[in-house]
Amino acid sequence: MSFKSNLYVGAAALILGAFGATAHASPQTEPSVASAAQSSEFKLDYEKFTLENGLEVILHVDKSDPIVAVTTVIHAGSNREKPGRTGFAHFFEHMAFNDSENVPRGWNRKAIPEWGGQRNGGTWSDGTIYYEVVPKDAFDKILWIDSDRLGYMINTVTQAALDREKQVVKNEKRQRVDNAPYGYTQEVIRKALYPEGHPYNWTVIGSLPDLQAATLEDLKTFYGEVYGPNNATLSIVGDIDIEETKRKVRQWFGEIPRGADIEPLPAMPVSLDADKKLYFEDSFAKLPELRLTFPTVESYSEDEIALRVLGDILAGSKNSTPFKQVVETDKLAPSVSAYNNSMELAGEFVFRIRANADTDLNAVYASLEAAMETFEETGVDPKDLQRIKAEQETRLYSSVATILGKGQELAQSNEFAGDPAYTTVQAELLKSVTAEDVMAVYKKYLKDKPAVMTSFVPKGQAELALEGSELAEVWIEEVKADVASEEVSQGEEADYEKTPTKFDRSEPEFGELPLVQMPDIWDAELSNNVTLLGIENGETPLVAFNIVFAAGSNDLETADKKGAVELLSRLMDEGTSTKTAAELEQALGLLGSFVGVSAGRETVTISGTSLARNLAPTLELVEEILLSPRFQTEEFERVKSAALTSIKGREADPNSIASLAFSNLIYGDNNPSGLPGDGTEKTVSALTLADMKAAHEKLFNLPATFHIVGDVTPEQAASDFASLAEDLNQGGFEAPTHSIPEQKNAGKVFFIDVPDSKQSVLYIGRLGVSATHPDFNKIDFANEKLGGGISGDLSQTLRIEKGYTYGAYSGISQAEMPQTWRIGTSVRANATEPSLTVIRGMLQDYGPEFDEAAAELTKNKVIKDSTRAFESLNAKLGTLNEISRFGRSYSFVEEEQAELVNMSVSDFKDSAARYFDEDEMIYVVVGDRKTQFEPVQNFAKEAGKGEVTELDIYGEPVSAEE
Asked: Is the pLDDT reported for residue 409 higher than 50?
């Protein structure tokens, strides 16, 4: 590929390391432009020490909440694998959450949530991470679990555990790759870009044949090669005492033997001699997608920061020439994306354009080339460079606003950069980037350079691919009908001799139970009866705010205008009467602020984040967005086209198909909750600019509540919001009354065909209650043990015991309209029937078998989970939203906890019997009809549920002729 001039395209926001960098104005800053560049230097304090076995430990004290985050980073990802044994690093991450010598089986996944904590892990090309956040009373228990995982787990691995986890990982791959539109793109790109044998030639999740071939000996070899403490960093952040924590770390981790010495991998950048054009007909995609991937440099190289800025310059805003050309002028796609991804050994600069339906990707490519010609003529806009630097300050503070964010940054920066606070170095590097630097990396890595070009097109539309493309080779799993051949179980525990240690590695006791209270909430009455609720918090110099209007798509539009409110929210993000979308975006960016409009079924919300010192000018722009949207034909037609593209795209997502069909079966066509909130192709196509103006007028007559949290006093916030409150006309709109729907389709089974699905999506549930109903909390509490997370019975049975799925959950959402309580999961295709049978049995048994132990477990889990409930700004903002929207008191969390504590076993049983009654459930299955319709029929027959009803992907009955 060659661009005939000088710069490039992209929509990926610049993220330096785990987060951004301190913003400072560039030399080109105009004195009259408001800027975010007035802050003091950012610092991330820490204390570091190293154990004799080589484990590097980073400590940071943050006593803002009674919680602790523990993060372990292993310097080994998929780049340490060998051809034929791909996916091992990710697979081992899964295995490491199972058994260890001194921690009971399953304790890692099950117990931590029950202690009120969160836990997870992740693998990428270069590393593996494990992390937990727990109430401080469970801190010793986490050190026990994490140290045992690092040093004492490999002897506990059995063949049965290996076989079971294979199924879980394969289910994850099916869910994220095989059953997802564009899921194979990374596999195609990596094979084309990196030569055979290069550590990036394969994807992180690897191939199913490689996973299936994995042996116990393979696993033990991988562990022995890379999992020593001398190849890891441990970070601990939160409500800790430094000296006491050092003692505990030495106690728990100090006896772990040092691992093998690992030679660092050298940088392995790649190059291309010519363009490689590949295409693939995607069974799930409904829109053609073009990606261009250029080889660049490894992370921490001198050009990395400039390349990341390049991506943001060229597609991080509506001011970029590719956006103007591809989206606005040629109208070929709703957006343009680009970003640089520098990894430990090599890097990639990627452009992604998911085009409108039926669009020829040759036209998209030509449009992109024309955009680059224009850009090379105009060069880098100094204000764009200034905007990027300003936005990073807000991103930086946002990312360290939680102890987990700080912990992950400290651990990863230490392990890969050798400096726990390397983000401060990146901040300085960003400040020094110039337009000349950006142009230089464009010329060096993109201009006249070959790329891997992939065209992923809908099945049967190969003619949309780039001219000259070759068919990409992708291994596609054949769906087997026999689930018994893949049946797994936990099996017997391993027979081994426990590793002797000087220190007793028995489970430690809980520490002192932390006391949890809701934060102090203040309120102020503004003009037009507008209430402002706030929480003052000065941990970071940020504020988060929103303006919530008390009606949404259910109230503001009729069935034939469905999608109008969603479209209005998109249009309000596209500029004002005096500013184009690009000008508005730049004005906000120069302040380091982010503002967006979103439409829900019951509310319309304008949300924002800004530096505290720039709240007033940010709200001035919000006022402009509210008062005078850009009601112009060109902008309207563009957002309308983007909305139609999005609607077409959801036809490719089995989960969206299941969700929309399920809602329609519950509510029907006569209740707005039974129709898509963003409309249908028919309703959105018919919308006009006049409809937008009418919806906007209704919006201004709605009651509204303002919320703000962060580093601002009540007096200052009230002053800054005053003008905005004066603009509103509260109470002039009367919302229509929607009757509470009756339960429909109880006990019926529905099937929707998505050909070639490697998994079946299951939605099982019924109509529940509104968030203000007296039974709402009881339902929520009763659900916790069944499906409230990975420790719930559904996940423990379907994932951990059976290996049918990657996860299974249940719950009810909060709204004024009665909501559905439902179970959701994606199971491997040939496990569809047994999964349905297992879920049915669990529903039948759950209430009758709920006992005192289950009640105590639920109470402990929910109450201790509250220690993390108010940590982030968004969590605090959500608390205020709940108070104003549902009329909660300022101490509603404590009141709900008291309600929970007073629930008897009979209360739990009664709630389960009333709301989880299996006879009332609707079953929706989305999967491959050719292989799964008959098993679903068998289930329905055995369960006495009558004939299975077939629906199409729009939820309409399929006629017999079809």
From this structure: yes
Query: Would you say the C-alpha torsion 214, 219, 222, 226 has a positive or negative sign?
Result: positive
**Distance between terminal CA atoms of the chain?**
46
Q: CB within 8 A of 439, min separation 6: which ones? A: 6, 7, 379, 380
d(CA 639, CA 331): 10
CATH architecture of 749-951: 2-Layer Sandwich (3.30)
pLDDT digits (tens, 9 = 90+) for 3-35: 332 222 222 222 223 222 222 222 232 323 333
Closest CA to 392 of 901, 16, 780: 16
Q: Is the pLDDT of residue 511 over 80?
A: yes
Rounded Cα distance between 756 and 912, Å, is 36
| Alpha helix positions (H), 115-254 | 139-151, 159-173, 185-193, 208-213, 216-226, 242-253
Residue the block writes with tokens 């929480």: 535
What is the reported pLDDT for 489?
63
Count how many Cα atoms sit within 13 Å of the Cα of residue 195 in the half-sphere of its side chain.
Answer: 6
Q: What is the largest CA-CA distance in the chain?
A: 77
**Helix, strand, coil content of the chain in percent (nearest 5):** 45, 15, 40
Do domains 53-257 and 276-471 share one topology? The answer is yes
Token digits for 834?
């047994």
CA distance readout (Å), 21 to 273, 392, 828 = 36, 5, 43
Query: Residue 430 in contact with residue 254, Cβ under 8 Å?
Result: no
What are 168-203's pLDDT values in tens digits? 888 888 888 988 899 999 999 999 999 999 999 999
| Type and span of the H or E element at 128 | strand 128-135
Residue 479 contacts by C-beta under 8 Å, 6 or more apart in sequence? 756, 757, 758, 829, 830, 928, 931
Q: Which residues contact 494 (CB under 8 A, 6 or more apart)?
A: 99, 155, 156, 157, 158
Are 782 and 843 a contacting pair, CB within 8 Å? Answer: no
Mean pLDDT of 636-663: 94
Distance set, CA 954 to CA 298, 534, 563, 650, 658 (Å): 45, 42, 16, 10, 9
User: Lowest mean pLDDT: which of 7-16, 254-263, 840-849?
Assistant: 7-16
**Dihedral sign computed on CA atoms, order 198, 233, 405, 123:** positive
CATH number of 53-257: 3.30.830.10
When comparing pLDDT for 851 and 518, which is higher? 851
- Is 148 in contact with 785 (CB distance < 8 Å)? no
Sign for the pseudo-dihedral over CA of 878, 908, 784, 939:
negative
Q: Yes or no: say if 848 and 782 are a contact pair by the CB < 8 Å rule.
A: no
The pTM assigned to this predicted structure is 0.89
CA 295/CA 450 separation, integer angstroms: 9
| Mean pLDDT value of segment 843-868 | 93
DSSP run (H or E) holding 842: helix 832-849
Distance separating alpha carbons of residues 319 and 325, to the nearest angstrom: 10
User: Using the 8-state DSSP alphabet, how is residue 381 labeled?
Assistant: -
Judge: domain 522-727, CATH 3.30.830.10.
yes
Domain ranges for the chain, please list them: 53-257, 276-471, 522-727, 749-951
- What pLDDT is attached to residue 44? 86
Grouping H, G, I as helix, E, B as strand and the rest as coil, residue 127 is coil
Spell out the residues 6+ positions from residue 549 whose beta carbon is closer than 8 angstroms to its own. 603, 604, 605, 699, 702, 703, 704
Q: Which position has the token pair 């992939």?
A: 454
Per-chain mean pLDDT for the chain = 90
> Mind listing the pLDDT tens digit for each residue in 565-611?
999 999 999 999 999 999 999 999 999 999 999 999 999 999 999 99
CA 489 to chain centre: 30
Residue 195 in tokens: 């030569």
| pLDDT higher than threshold 70 for residue 962 | no
CA distance 795 to 805: 8
- CATH code of the domain made up of 276-471: 3.30.830.10
Contact 621, 547 (CB under 8 A): no
